[in-house]
Amino acid sequence: MQPRPNPSCLLLLLWLAGTLAAQTSAEVARRYTSEHQAQLTQAFSQLLSIPNVAADPGNLERNANVLAGMLKQRGVDSRLLSMAGAPPVVYGQVVVPGAKRTIVFYAHYDGQPVTPSEWEGAPFTPVIREVDGEQRIYARSAADDKAAIFAQLTALDALREAKVSLRANVRFVWEGEEEAGSPHLEQILDASRESIRGDLWLICDGPVDQSGMQTVVFGARGDAHLEVTVYGPHRGLHSGHYGNWAPNPAMMLAQLLAGMKDDQGRVLVPHFYDGITPLSPAEKEALARAPVNDQMLMNSFWLGHTDGGGAHLLELINQPSLNINGLASAQVGARATNVIPPTATADLDLRLVVGIDWREQQQRVIDYIRSRGYFVVDNQPTREILTQHPKVALVKRDEAGYNAVRTAMDLPIAREVIRAVESARADVVLLPTMGGSVPLGAMERAAQTHTVTVPIANYDDNQHAANENLRLQNLWNGVETMAALLELR
Fold first, then answer.
1. Which residues, including other chains, have CB under 8 Å from residue 5's CB and lie 6 or more apart?
2. What is the C-alpha separation between 253 and 229, in angstroms, rounded?
3. What angle do CA 316, 355, 305 make, to 5 degrees?
4. N or C: fewer beta carbons within 10 Å in the chain?
5. Which residues are CB-contacts of 467 (< 8 A; sequence separation ≥ 6)?
6. pLDDT tens-digit series, residues 442-460
7. Could you tell me which of 34, 166, 40 has the C-alpha nearest to residue 485?
8. C-alpha R_g of the chain
C-alpha cells in the first residue's frame, strides 16, 4: 500500500514553487550577486587587468579572445568578426526555439588611452577603495565599458542557475574600437548582416543619470573632430628680440578660438545650429520630468558658473556643441622658455544632434576659420605658402565622425524596454539623448533595427580620465537590469 502524501508537505512544495515562479528576473539576479560577490569581484578584476588601448593591438586581440572564451564557457555560440586593420568584434548568439524576436546587446571592450603618472595606482591593476562608505573598483574601463559586458554575462549566469528560460533569441556584439570612433564597425557589421540582425539593439554604454537613478536613453549625439594648427616663425624666436613684431601662433590661435563662442558659451560659427530636428512632445515631456541635477553637479565639479545662459544641462545636451579637447604650443612650467613658438595646435570636438550632418558641421567651422583671414590647407604648408599668406591654418578632418540618432520613445518595443527596466529598478529616468556619442547610425543601418541605450555606470566614474572607477553597487544593479532585459519576449 502506497503511503499517502502529507498534505502539509504538498502545500509547502506548492508554496515554494509559487515563490520561485513569482520571483522576477531582477530578484533572481540580486540573490545571485549577493551570494557570489567575492568571486564576481575577482573575475571582474581579472577582466580589467588586460590592457585595452588602441595603441596596443595585441592586447585588444587578447581581450577579444578572452571574451569569446567567456561566452563559450556559458554554452553561447561565439566567434570573432574580423577585418584587416581593426580589432575584432566579439559575437555571441543564443537561439531560443520558437522565439519570435531577437534582441542584440551591444557594448565595447576597448578603453581610452592612459597616462600612468596621472593615476593613483596602475591603470590595469584593479584596486578597490572605499568612497563615502561605498566600495569602488579603480581601473581603466571599469565603467567604460567592461562593466556592461560583465553585467550581461553575470545576468546570464544568474538566470541559468535559477533555470529561468530566455524568451527571445539573444545576440551579443562587443566592439573593440569604439573609443577610436568606430571607423570599421559598419563594414564589419555589413559583412555579417544576417548574424547581427535584431528587432532591437540594446546599447549598454555610458553613465546613469547624475541623480543615481537608472536611465533609459533613446539616442546619442553624433561626433566629429578637427585639428587646427596655425603658424608663426619657421623656428622658435627669442621673445625679447622679436616680441611685438613676429606673430605669436599661440596668441593667434587663442584669438581664433575665442571668436567661436560668446561669453555664455553659445557657438558663433555661422549656421552652426541650422537643421536641428525638434524634440517631439513625448521627448519634451520626458525632459520636463527628469531630475535637475545642475546645482549638485556645480558643487561636485567646483564650478562657480555654467555656460548656456541659465539653461539646464539636459536642455544643452540636446544642442550641438563645440569643445576644445586640447591645446599645444611651446612649453609651460619648469620647461618654459622665453620664446615665440613656431606653431599652435587645437583639437576640436563637435558634438551633434539629429538633423546636422557631421561633415557639414566640420565644413562650417572650416569656413569660419577662412572668414577670419586664414588661408586653409589640408597638408603641411610649404615655405612658399607661409610667406605668401599673412595667416595660414592647417585643418585636418577626422574621417571617423558620425551623425546623431534618436529612437521614438513611443514605439511598442521601446515601451517594452521601459517596462522591463522598471521591473528591475524602482525609479527610472527617460531621456531623448545622452551627452556622449555612440555610432548608433552604423548599427541601425547594418542591422536594420532600432537602438535604445541602457547604461549602468555611475556618473562620477572619471570616464575617459585618470582614476576611472565603478561603484560596485552600480555593477550589481546593472546585473539586475540586464537580467530583466534578457527576459524580453
1. none
2. 8
3. 10
4. N
5. 118, 119, 120, 138
6. 999 999 999 999 999 999 9
7. 166
8. 26
Q: Is the dihedral of CA 326, 329, 330, 332 positive or negative?
A: negative
Return the domain boundaries, the chain: 22-218+407-486, 224-280+317-397
The hierarchical CATH code for the domain 224-280+317-397 is 3.30.70.360
**What is the Cα–Cα distance from 34 to 194, expressed in whole angstroms?**
38
| Cβ neighbours around 360 below 10 Å, total | 14
Residue 163, all three cell numbers:
533555470
How far is 350 from 247, CA to CA, in rounded Å? 28
Specify burial of residue 412 (Cβ count, 10 A radius: 0-12, 13-18, 19+): exposed
Rounded to a whole number, what is the distance in angstroms from the first to the last CA of the chain? 47
CA angle 301, 305, 308 (to 5 degrees): 110
- Find all residues with CB under 8 Å of 459, minimum gap 6, and list them: 207, 208, 209, 210, 212
398 contacts: CB under 8 Å, gap ≥ 6 = 181, 224, 225, 226, 227
DSSP code of residue 207: B
What is the secondary structure of 95-119 as a DSSP string?
--TT---EEEEEEE--B----GGGS
CATH class entry, domain 22-218+407-486: alpha beta
CA distance 110 to 63: 8
Q: How far is CA 400 from each of CA 111, 252, 379, rounded to the nearest angstrom?
A: 17, 28, 18
For range 190-195, the mean pLDDT: 95
Which amino acid type is present at position 476?
W
Pair 216, 453: CB distance under 8 Å:
yes
Beta bridge partners of 105: 172, 202
Distant-in-sequence contacts of 239-242, Cβ < 8 A, 24+ apart = 239/338, 239/339, 239/340, 240/338, 242/340
Rounded to whole angstroms, the Cα distance separating 480 from 380 reads 53
Integer Cα distance of 324 and 351 in angstroms: 11
What does the block give as the cell for 401?
A: 565622425
DSSP classification of residue 303: -
Q: According to the model, what pLDDT value does residue 20 have?
A: 46
**Distance between CA atoms of residues 160 and 28, nearest Å:** 10
- CA–CA distance, 131 with 137 (Å, rounded to integer): 10
- What pLDDT digit, counting tens, does each position of 391-400 carry? 999 999 999 8
| Grid cell at residue 149 | 559586458
- The reported pTM is 0.89
